[in-house]
Please model this.
Amino acid sequence: MVFNDTVMQARLPGDVYKTLKKTMAQGCHLELDLANTVANAMKDWAVEKGATHFTHWFQPMTGTTAEKHDSFIVPAGDGKIIMEFSGKELVRGESDASSFPSGGLRATFEARGYTVWDTSSYAFIKDGTLCIPTAFCSYSGEALDKKTPLLRSMDAINKQALRILKLFGNTTVQRVITTVGAEQEYFLIDKMMFQERPDLIYTGRTLFGARPPKGQELEDHYFGCIKPRVSAFMKELEEELWKLGVYAKTKHNEVAPGQHELAPIFTTTNIATDHNQITMELMKSIANEHNMACLLHEKPFAGVNGSGKHNNWSLCTDTGINLLEPGETPYENAQFLLFLVAVIKAVDEHQDLLRVSAASAGNDHRLGANEAPPAIVSMFLGDELTDIFTAIESGADYQGKEKRPMEIGVSVLPHFPKDTTDRNRTSPFAFTGNKFEFRMLGSTFSIAGPNIVLNTIVADTLQQFADTLESSSDFTGDLASLVKKTFSAHKRIIFNGNNYSDEWVSEAQNRGLSNLKTAVDALPTFTSAQSIALFSRHAVFSEQEIHSRYEIMMEAYCKTIHIEALTMIDMVKGNIIPASVDYQRDLVDLLRQKKAYGGSLDVSLEDHLLHKIAKLSSSLLKKLTTLENALGESKAQEDVLASARFYRDTIFAAMSDLRLIVDELETLVARKYWPFPVYGELLYSII
Ligand code: ADP
Ligand code: MG
Model:
């Protein structure tokens, strides 16, 4: 269902195909008559596949996707219709920009926005609609989406990486792209149970819930056998993804009960971003068809692991060479070492921006909670590469490690060479053989943001390297000293140990690494002078575009917590108090009847329960009132930063207090009175 290279080649006249390919690879201009031919071929192909509509599919700054459908239908007189799709409709669409957050880039009355065909991502058919991946910008040309700056960042890194390759004598490479494979974690629960939880419906996470007798402590779910219902879902999901050109490859259970993961085969960052959006969308819709709900929130349940997304990232030439591939003898591979040290410098210098790219209200529940990397950005290189750099730094010879056979001690098992380096699952940014795995992303994120940052910071370092080396009269000597100098200056960012340990937090502090614990701490660094200069230098974001994104992220943070607080209040007043009142009434009735029964029936149990619940009820009222009052003050904050701090320090704190009381109440009120399915039921709802 993808208008991919094979389809294009089969359906487009040879010269049109060639020009389109050139536009796709190098971003050249496409004439309107050519666009007309492409549009017509796309329409014929789509109609044959049952499509009746087309849409410009785009990714507004909310991080989700948007589409507005138009049919191909054009009246042809005599009550007849023909199916038409013009080059103009393919290339450009007009969309109401005022209904999407613009972070101050547009006034609400200025409604014009344009969607523009992204030729570098294939069109596809979803639900009978031809979807054209597009960028989204305002009347005055500012990017209103996530795709435009991502494409700009890919251009930036391409430009600088080519300069470096040229220095190494490589002139055949035309383009350097960044590649990404995004591993996606998610939870599945039964749909009926989902529908009974307003918190899941409105906020994507449970706002209440006492710990179940069994969580993930037996470590029996990860890689465990996949339940038949889940397996049927995964099978359909994969098939639907394959149809859309998303090559889902790996699937398995994750650590928490009800948690799973899907990983696709990596592709160009731009396409990987589109594909991850499609994946999340299909996960939800296909789960629904299977009478399940797919939860993509970063922390749907307290007490068990939350969900993240792992952004595997590398650099690749159009001739198919992975620039982060160390080869057999990495210590002799100067080009590899230069690219690697560029990433090390970029990550060290821009820790804060990487942290910003993983910041959200939802992800605040995960980072630093000993289930995901801490909020401290550091890098894992592994022993071999660390040894190589250490040798370079000290001027010593590096004794290459020979690949030893793996000793398992069982003669019937085949022998295989041992990897020279172990893996490290606790690092936020780990080198994994020929790519980096950035692990801080939250599961609901668009991967555009983190990749915009990654591409831009590495482009910036490569630019500095190219500036230095292009003017050098002793390339080999200067290259060696550049690698050495850069490693020395930035080695503090390398940490191969356990990132979840308390020792690391204090060690990182000693090293001067930043530790921006919450999204509210992190986000302001995005608007720093250094950040604005960086993104402007590479034409990725203008200053205005940065401010707009900052506003949107801050507002999203506040709104998320606001909705959560309102939902809590609603559940407490509408369901939890009535349930606890009912139970108390029945206990009082029983107690009265027992006393009236005569004799001396023991009422200690009823008495004890009633006292406990009555006491909790009065705390409940207090905490509820505190939260309601706090919400009343939320409007009074002077700016978005003050507001976000208020939501974090006051509202969120009041919510946590309220939750504690309700969770205890849940353990006292008889199950048949409790208005919502409890954790045990939710987590083990798929059998
Ligand atoms: P693990 O869970 O062990 O980290 P997975 O197999 O689940 O590994 O996922 C690894 C991901 O990395 C896959 O999406 C894979 O396609 C991707 N990947 C592999 N090589 C590259 C590369 N050169 N560039 C980007 N991503 C890559
Ligand atoms: Mg994986």
